[in-house]
């Protein structure tokens, strides 16, 4: 495949790194004091409580609501781990699948908020492309360590 400046594999690595930077920014811009103090999960609880799909309400009430502090840490540090993993290309296929799933969870929770949907759909699509283009084969620790060959 002929491209300008970089080859196809390098452009896919750029996409992977860009997704990682996007996740890192999701982690960075959180007000950690408010988030870990219950603000983030409290906000999500309000969204889930009024959700049009009962499965989302029930799932949130079973999985997240009983453990808001733990889930706040899980969400925040999952975003950090995804960002760092994708930037350096470590356990990249796992990170891409987990990021795709997390974006789908965000997408389903925020199904009524079109402002949020653009970001989640775009990140999910980019993760899908990066996964099936095997973006860990270039500029990654996975490649340097001979993983996922």
Automatic annotation (TrEMBL):
Chain ranges passing through the membrane: 6-24, 94-114, 121-139
UniProt keyword list: Membrane, Transmembrane, Transmembrane helix
Keyword hit for Transmembrane helix: yes
One Gene Ontology cellular component annotation held by this UniProt entry: membrane
Pfam families reported for this sequence: DoxX (PF07681)
Highest taxon in the source lineage: Bacteria
Keyword Membrane found: yes
Protein name per its UniProtKB record: DoxX family protein
Membrane topology term: Multi-pass membrane protein
Locations listed in the record: Membrane
